[in-house]
Request: fold
Amino acid sequence: MSKRVIFALGGNAILTKDASAQAQQRALQDTAEKLAGYVKNNPETQLVITHGNGPQVGNLLLQGALGSTADNPAMPLDTVVAMTQGQIGYWMADALDQALPEHHAAAMATRAVVDQDDPAFQQPTKPIGMFYQEAELTDLKQQHPDWAFKEDAGRGFRRVVPSPKPINIVEAQAVEDLVNSGAILIAGGGGGVPVVKTEHGYTGVEAVIDKDFTAAKLAEVVEADELVILTAVDMAYLHFGKPDEQALHEITVAQAKQYVADGEFAAGSMKPKIEALISFVERTGKQAVMTSLDNIADYQENQRATIVVPD
Reply:
């Protein structure tokens, strides 16, 4: 019986310093080759992939703002999330078809239902777009008075937007059907288009859902055997960046919750990843993994990963 694994890729694994379509396609070809290495080491594994879109959303919003006119207005945030799902899904499906020709990749535009009363709408934390230096913030705030900025892991400042938690996937049945067909499915890109349910159907909202939480929700929908969150580092650390930092290898849900409560992980960065791992393990009783894309083919042997297991 095959093992079904959800992979959650960060948006920064797609966008390099070169924001051109060609550069992002090349980055995704490299990503697909690394995922193919994992599949070759684990031939009975079926992949379901979701991805971040923070850099791409921010850049599209900036392009829209710079070129906006009364006759050709910029698109709202929920629509821009859908646009990035399309572009990244298209590029990723092409790259996976080349790297794993014996499989078939399919990309699906996905809506994620959120609660319109989620407190996240009052506290924007999700970084999107490019990095800015502190000296640039004054001009940016004058140009975009409704934007909020936060420092991001010592790399500069980025715009932050609300990041509510997903409570359901609108296309859940279609997701399940496609996965059961044996396809490599790319879904929930950018966390899914954020929508709220109303008496008239679904309505988009101005937010970007953290893709790690949507990955955990998708993992429930498709009854995944494992959730793997891929990020820039091989594993999480206690006291990160300090002389006494300590790598976290295998930890229980209870330990992970305590570390979150102790403030060990940065909001909008490592914290949502650990919380998504906890959510998956609690709901399924199965393990969840966080490691880097570069390490994905070898983490089971070198143990350079953070693995959350049931208590």
Q: What stands out?
A: The longest strand covers residues 3-9. The radius of gyration is 19 Å.
